[in-house]
Amino acid sequence: MSSPxxxxxxxxxxxxxxxxxxxxxxxxxxxxxxxxTLQRLRGMGRxxxxxxxxxxxxxxxxxxxxxxxxxxxxxxxxxxxTMALVTFLNETLPGGRLFVIGASSLHRELAEAGxxxxxxxxxxxxxxxxxxxxxxxxxxxxxxxxxxxxxxLYATNPDRTVPLASGGEAPDTGPIIAAIExxxxxxxxxxxxxxxxxxxxxxxxLAGVPVAGCLLVGDNLETxxxxxxxxxxxxxxxxxxxxxxxxxxxxxxxxxxxxGSLIDLIAPxxxxxxxxxxxxxxxxxx
Length: 286
Ligand SMILES: [Mg+2]
Description:
With 286 residues, the protein is an alpha/beta fold. It is 34% helix and 19% strand.
């Protein structure tokens, strides 16, 4: 039986929008039961969309990483903040000149998408803030000068920290945004990853089913659960990632459901066998 603080859903959804880091895996380690649960949902004909605010990898890299853990994912099922950023920039600043603070793969993706990367403050039209393990004073100064000359400030994600495979967390994009905002006295102009409406819309488009048939599953109240709440998508929080049971208790944002792990999406003792035989399901017969 689940502990009293858990509140798993008592039905299946047509589509599951599932956060990756802290929900499916932690760093390089698959979380207990995640692989079996995803396989079972897939076997029951449920649509899966994987969401990530990590901008340091390409879709293929996520597919490969999951495959290495024995989890099948198709390229078209992955939605990253990098994809949301490219879509956003194509709409607002096509072919624009960018100063990118972020991983080398983010630089590459933006260059390949037709944007010019520049470190000359007078040429830069937008500063892109993302997690960058080599963030330093030189980059902060270029961002500061570019924004003073009129550049916009965009970010891939607002996360304060990223969970580490070894346990604990490390600084993510949030503190980098804060440093640039503090220096330039210019607030962030747009954020495109979770919990933005742009990311929600893109996720629902990939899911391809009405919003009430979707369940958004994640470990972060400020990104995953907030995105669901603000966009009318039912939500389930997985404890043990970046959110503890005690933090949840006092949080202003509350999920519809609370899980100990992904296994709780298919709770034992429920009438799952009957549900698996419903149209849309193709699971095992009793
Ligand atoms: Mg997460």
